[in-house]
Amino acid sequence: MSYKTIPELFFHSVAANPGQKAYFEKVNGEWIGLTYGEVGVLAERFAAGLARMGIKKGDKIAILSTNNPRWSISDFAVAGLGGVTVSIYPTLIASQIKYIIDDSDTRYVIAEDREQIDKVLSFIDESPGLEGIIAMDNTSEPDKNIFSYDEILKQGDEYIKEKDFSLREVSKAVQPDDLLTLIYTSGTTGNPKGVMLTHKNLVSNVISGRKAIDVGSSDIFLSFLPLSHSFERMVGHFTAFSANSTVYYAESVDTVADNMGEVKPTVMTSVPRLYEKMYSKVLEKVSKDPPLRQKIFWWAIGVGKKASKFFQRNKKPTGLLAFQFGIADKLVFSKIKERVGGRLRFFISGGAPLSKEIGEFFAAANIAILEGYGLTETSPVITCNRETLYKFGTVGAPIDGVEVKIAEDGEILCRGDNVMAGYYKNPEATAEVLDADGWFHTGDIGEFDEDGYLRITDRKKNLLVTSGGKNVAPSPMENALVTNKYIEQCVVIGDSRKFISALIVPAFDRLKEWAREQNLDVDPEDIEALIKDQKVNALYEEIIAQVMENFSRYEQVKAFRLVPREWTIESGELTPTLKVKRKVVETNYADLIEEIYSA
User: Tens digits of per-residue pLDDT, 197-223?
Assistant: First the structure.
């Protein structure tokens, strides 16, 4: 692994195993694959087409699409030219996309389909720097400056003949400190900031990440987190390619469970929300099983939790425990493993804190979830758990070449080749987080344990200070609450208040089922009436009381309100990586919050 730029990484992998399958996507119900050699040819053709259109080193090209092979090929092509990829979440609305395109000085947008094209067309006349759109679905309207993807490839073929164009030769001008990408942070308030990441930033993270977690050419990734996000971009895109692994692109977030069964991945990255849903579904199914099966299941979990203490340190149980685990695995855990494809080596979790309870549950079945930690500004990985030692409630140890220290106020600081060059055209914001000695101030509060593993308690800005002066970290409480099968989402509130409260989004399907079983006097389909029902609220009082037993008295949720709909990306209450935007929720439900504290 001697490469220092993304093009060097790219050509190294293409040459190493050109016949290896690189990417698969589902087309008309069938998985269609491309080899590393074919990807190399397509990237060169596309880059040549862009070069013929006048794209040169330093130019900004945006990608507005869900995950697919054309996303990845476009990214490598732009990088090879020395251009800068501006990654845009396809869930954003037109006004948000316009801000990013204008702020980043983007020349062309590579858009997935008509839906994304129409968003760009709605403002293209007001964005003077934007010259046109390249349509992945081969839409072509030259009068509107819309060029088909295939047309760019054909233009590339002609340019290669005319100019004897070689992407490998052109890419030699790319230097490690050159800008590779702009990734705009999904801020909860104000406009997003463009994080400037260089080739050195991403390459150093790939190399160090692979030293910490081993992946190779036999590994199969299932990619569903947005490639627009730094986590999937680094792990599921650059790292997978560097290892000659095979990547399958999930059809959508909704099909991930089905795609796992088809693809049978060995490695998968996800945010905790996926694991929470899987956990909840398993427990829901078990709750409907006959009593004997339930007894066997919970016996197996008990055995698995004892055995997991060995698995977490890369060891195997012995003696009676090994015998018991063998039975538990055959009767219970083999079925859970089959749900994730049957050959998963490990999950990689990031983007938000993983509940310790959920981590321990999967570990009991000998399904490892390796949790890591980082930010877009750190390319993104700072720390991660290892296969040889993974500890729930921690985000692991720093990866090679990354320094981490805890400031006097508990904030986590990071320094290394992975730290961004700064925020694009925003030196003031850069100075707020990058100090003179190169330390990046993460805004997270944490501490190291006896093994040098980092434990994060909360975001510095999220810490609640009650009117009584008590500091309360909301994340651990929220993580504990959402593990209950009747709770889909929640936000803990209490800053400058007399006590802690919560807004809770019920798991509506399960709540409706419970309401029918209880023969409530309310129509389960009438959500507004359902969440106001006395018995329903009594159910949630009991759930909260049980969960809060593990927290100090001043931390415990003393009051709550149920809300009538799920928080979504579309409503603006979730980030594209499914994290709740606390400030947005608090604004949207300000009246309900005031009702809690005035009661």
Answer: 999 999 999 999 999 999 999 999 999
Q: HEC profile for 133-195?
A: EEECCCCCEHHHCEEEHHHHHHHHHHHHHHHCCCHHHHHCCCCCCCEEEEEECCCCCCCCCEE
Instruction: State both tokens at 288.
Output: 């409907």
Task: Count the neighbouring beta carbons within 10 Å of the beta carbon of residue 148.
Answer: 17
Architecture of the domain whose range is 6-174? 3-Layer(aba) Sandwich (3.40)
Closest of 499, 508, 490 to residue 559, by C-alpha: 499
Domain 464-598: which topology?
GMP Synthetase; Chain A, domain 3 (3.30.300)
Span(s) in the chain for CATH 3.40.50.12780: 6-174
Residue showing tokens 């092979």: 69
Closest-CA residue to 109 (of 81, 78, 79):
78
Angle between helices 272-287 and 356-364 (to 10 degrees): 60
Distance of CA 440 to the CA centre of its chain: 21
Rounded Cα gap, residues 349 and 361, in angstroms = 15
Q: What is the pTM of this model?
A: 0.86
* Residue scoring higher pLDDT (186 or 123): 123
d(CA 174, CA 59): 13
Neighbours of 58 (CB within 10 A): 12
Among the ranges given (329-343, 404-418, 470-484), the one the predictor scored with the smallest mean pLDDT: 470-484
